[in-house]
Design a protein that fits this description.
The protein is built from eleven helices and twelve strands. It is an alpha/beta fold and 312 residues long. It folds into two domains: 1-88, Arc Repressor Mutant, subunit A (Orthogonal Bundle), CATH 1.10.10; 93-312, D-Maltodextrin-Binding Protein, domain 2, CATH 3.40.190. The strands form four sheets. It has a five-stranded mixed beta sheet, sandwiched between helices. Helix 1 (3-15) crosses helix 2 and helix 2 (18-25) crosses helix 3. The radius of gyration is 23 Å and the shape is globular. The relative contact order is 0.14.
Length: 312
């Protein structure tokens, strides 16, 4: 079995596409297809079902991917530990983040980390908090940053930064008043909310339940799976929403969104670094976790942001 064929297989399995796998591997699509065909011939079993333009992994592919992940992890550890002998921190670092960390925390964090350790290669995936936690649990990702915890999973959570969630509306879309809005008024308004599995969605559901206003009683007109799309929809006047203040900061500074003051609602939200307690942490992972712990203690506290003239 050729290791190049196995790497091509693993990438096709992860990306669910021959063309996207070829792009990631910097190979031509025919080369990737040839690798998979050779591997299927060697294994004497189909690894993918071709359904038009889509592909689905077979049961044999699920088994092979599980074992190939162990092989690649072992090779990564060997490479990193050998390089460690010469004080060279390197290797691939597979990271994942929910929407807010991926777009508003990782850019600066990774810039500084790669400045310290330029031989580390970053692979960054984005998904909702539940998706990232599941991928850390299965070993597909080494480290994740998410906006919620799931105590049912065997994972380690370390606080990274605090963020404040705020209720937002487009200026002019509501009758602006200096008086706070009440919960009863919220029942009558149109809402744009994040998709299930989002850390923001989970925090909103908890706050609304505590205030006696279940999410199911709101007039939800749109469910969206990204923070940027969420904010743009609200800016257009489609409805109100609850979002990370960190994500909305530029919109608030440009006066394109305003914060609604609702005394009954109290939002508490932190971002967590999530890792697997049983997975071997080769040097790049250990140094990255150490760096995140330093960052948590010294800087980048999203909850400390203060904006003027952003409350209607």
């Amino acid at each position: 079995m050729d290791i190049r064929q196995l790497r091509a297989f693993a990438k096709v399995y992860e990306r669910k596409s021959f063309s996207r796998a070829a792009e990631d591997l910097l190979l031509s699509q025919p080369t990737v297809s040839a690798h998979i065909a050779s591997l299927e011939q060697f294994m004497r079993v189909a690894l993918f079902d071709r359904l038009g333009r889509s592909i689905l992994p077979t049961q044999a592919a699920d088994i092979l991917y599980r074992h190939s992940s162990v092989i690649f992890a072992s090779l990564d550890r060997a490479e990193s530990e050998i390089r460690l002998l010469s004080n060279d921190i390197s290797g691939e670092l597979k990271l994942g983040g929910s929407t807010i960390p991926s777009n508003y925390l990782f850019p600066e964090l990774l810039k500084v980390f790669l400045g310290r350790y330029p031989n580390v290669r970053i692979s960054l995936s984005q998904g909702d908090s539940l998706d990232i936690m599941e991928r850390v649990q299965t070993g597909e990702l080494f480290v994740g940053v998410v906006g919620a915890k799931n105590d049912a999973m065997d994972l380690v959570y370390q606080p990274l930064v605090e963020d404040s969630l705020v209720v937002l509306a487009a200026p002019g879309s509501l009758a602006c008043s200096d008086k706070p809005y009440c919960l009863e008024m919220l029942r009558k308004m149109k809402w744009v909310i994040r998709q299930p599995g989002s850390g923001t969605r989970l925090a909103v559901e908890r706050a609304l339940e505590s205030a006696g206003l279940p999410l199911k009683e709101l007039n939800v007109v749109c469910v969206v799976d990204g923070a940027e799309a969420q904010l743009r929809l609200v800016r257009s006047g489609l409805g109100i929403t609850v979002s990370s203040r960190l994500a909305a900061r530029e919109y608030l500074l440009r006066n394109e969104l305003m914060i609604l003051h609702i005394p009954e609602l109290h939002f508490e939200r932190s971002f967590f670094v999530v890792s697997h307690p049983s997975r071997h942490q080769f040097p790049a992972v250990r140094y990255f976790l150490q760096y995140l712990a330093e960052s948590s203690a010294s800087s980048c506290r999203a909850g400390d942001l203060r904006l003027e003239s952003d409350i209607c």
